[in-house]
Design brief:
It is built from 12 helices and 4 strands; from the N terminus they run H-H-H-H-E-H-E-E-H-E-H-H-H-H-H-H. It has 269 residues and is mostly helical. Helix 4 packs across helix 6.
């Protein structure tokens, strides 16, 4: 009888130890994710005294992010430390998802709540974490071709050189025709400003929208044309009259148009 009681006691102790181990593991798992003791108690039914005893001295290693910034950092870290890294559109997609967007009623479109400063902060935090963990965070431009990274870069660099050379030629033509300054400094500044203006019109990367830029500069030149009465302006007006474009007649009988211009119909009458 005593032997049976001893065996039953050992079995009970084993079951209790296994149960305590399972309870402890569950509490630790939630603690490592950054959950508070009160929330752990609500989720597991354990007392805060038991939870405090289990988690004492155990640091939080996987704290759950709560802010849009922290959530973005966590997701961006996982993507950027992959072998292929994270492309710009993927990173912006993460921030758009976490920060959300607002409706612009005046322009009729959605606008993301994050800006370039948010992107910079997220990238900086991700890089710091990667260095700490001995990993490499890679942020990849959208234009890079994964199948041929170097070739795609070289192709665009060559394209940029071609465009730059052609733009230099156009600037030379512009300065030859439209620069009458005697000062070398004024000529240099005019050329620089002209090149910059063309690049803004081409790329649309300036802070001012292209339609607004065109309208503003048109107003400036219109004002100058109506205000100044100078030899240079008169020369420009004469050149404009010489270069006047006469469109092709928009009739169907082009031969009749030609006959009327020659005055043959009046002679025949």
């Amino acid at each position: 009888m005593e032997i049976q009681n001893t065996a039953a006691s050992k079995s009970f102790d084993s079951e209790r130890a296994a149960n305590d181990e399972a309870r402890t593991e569950k509490v630790l798992a939630l603690h490592l994710k950054g959950m508070s003791r009160r929330k752990i108690s609500a989720a597991t039914g354990e007392t805060e005294h038991f939870i405090r005893k289990v988690v004492e001295g155990v640091p939080v290693t996987d704290k759950l992010p709560t802010t849009a910034f922290d959530k973005s950092v966590k997701r961006a870290y996982e993507l950027s430390t992959r072998e292929q890294g994270v492309k710009d559109y993927e990173l912006r997609g993460v921030l758009h998802s976490e920060y959300g967007c607002t409706w612009n009623s005046s322009e009729g479109r959605y606008e993301s709540r994050f800006d370039k400063d948010n992107i910079k902060r997220v990238k900086g935090k991700v890089r710091d974490q990667a260095v700490t963990n001995g990993q490499n965070a890679k942020f990849i431009p959208d234009w890079i071709d994964y199948s041929a990274p170097t070739a795609s870069r070289v192709a665009l660099e060559q394209a940029a050189n071609v465009l730059s050379s052609r733009l230099d030629e156009l600037m030379n033509e512009f300065m030859f025709e439209f620069s009458d300054n005697d000062s070398s400094e004024a000529v240099s500044k005019q050329r620089f400003a002209a090149r910059r203006h063309v690049l803004k019109l081409m790329s649309g990367l300036g802070q001012e929208p292209i339609p607004a830029l065109l309208e503003r500069t048109k107003n400036v030149t219109d004002t100058l044309d109506s205000s100044f009465d100078s030899p240079a302006l008169q020369q420009a007006v004469r050149r404009k009259s010489v270069d006047k474009f006469i469109p092709e007649p928009n009739t169907r009988d082009y031969f009749l148009d030609f006959v009327q211009e020659q005055g043959w119909l009046r002679v025949a009458a």
